[in-house]
Amino acid sequence: MEYIKGLIPGLALALAITGSAGFLAQTSWFVQIHISALSLAIILGILCGNLFYNRVSGYLQPGILFAKGTLLRLGIILYGFRISLQDIGQVGISALFADFLVLLFTFLITLRLGIKFLKIDKQVVYLTAVGCSICGAAAIMAAAPVLKAPSHKISVAVALIVIFGTMAMFLYPLLYPYLVSYLSPHQFGIYIGSTIHEVAQVYAAGGNIGPEVADTAVIAKMLRVMMLAPFLFILAWYWNKNDRGREKIAPPYFALAFIATAIFNSSGLLPAEIVRWLVEADNLLLSVAMSGLGLSTSFDAVKQAGTKPFLLGGLVALWLVVGGFAINFILYLTMN
């Protein structure tokens, strides 16, 4: 009972920030620029944390650690209710190939640029690579316990996703009239879904073109999300193998629960209304986790990362636009 009481102050603050982020996300200005409640939660959390959190961190800390730890893992598990195995059949095998190739090349290119060329902190590079390769902030948060990354490094990686993913969201509709002669609307939707970071950003980019492109883009994006669980196990194995001086990391078993949730969701046993409520609950859990992450992030620690991570984010964004188009164009020619 004492443990639960100790969680209440920090959780209450994280919930208050989450509520504020949700309210702001519904206002006309934020709706127009498609900034999600998830992104706003970490921004508000960082602002609040740096304004007054350090003064009362003693009794707030247990609840905040619970938010960005336990609630995060539960949120990743419930994320499986957003996808189903039937999604694969709706977009075709080309989407699966595009997602896999973009994920693989993006991850390896990000590691090469960040570690070998720019000499950035390895954890920041890995988190950025995971976020750009799979599903943005949710993937970063899922990979953070695998890499045992501190809050300020997670915040740097999330910031890159917010900045460059938002830019891509507006860029792709501008490119569409010029590229649609090389890709069909269906394949252009796959191009969007396989290269833009966040689900909300994918939907916004596709929606600004047309409903067919938007639907295909979101389903292609969901296929990338399904690759998160096996990727986390490979990442944990690779990190343990190549960083022998570090503490060994346990396999991310919550990723198995994520897969089980997606498979169960594919069965159609739950009514659509219940699934919708579970997705809403998942939004809440992930937003509270983001708030907790922001509250435990110091401006000074983020500033120490310097400008190199943002250069990395820009180079990877350029690769996704150009290299992602090349991958989708070759697949389109090959399969049509």
UniProtKB/TrEMBL annotation:
Subcellular location: Cell membrane
Keyword terms: Cell membrane, Membrane, Transmembrane, Transmembrane helix
GO cellular component: plasma membrane
Record-annotated membrane-spanning stretches: 35-53, 91-111, 123-144, 156-176, 218-239, 251-272, 309-333
InterPro entries: UPF0324_pro (IPR018383), UPF0324_YeiH-like (IPR004630)
Cross-referenced Pfam families: Cons_hypoth698 (PF03601)
Keyword presence, Transmembrane: yes
Recorded topology in the membrane: Multi-pass membrane protein
Family: Belongs to the UPF0324 family.
Protein name (database record): Putative integral membrane protein (TIGR00698 family)
Organism classification: Bacteria, Pseudomonadati, Pseudomonadota, Gammaproteobacteria, Pasteurellales
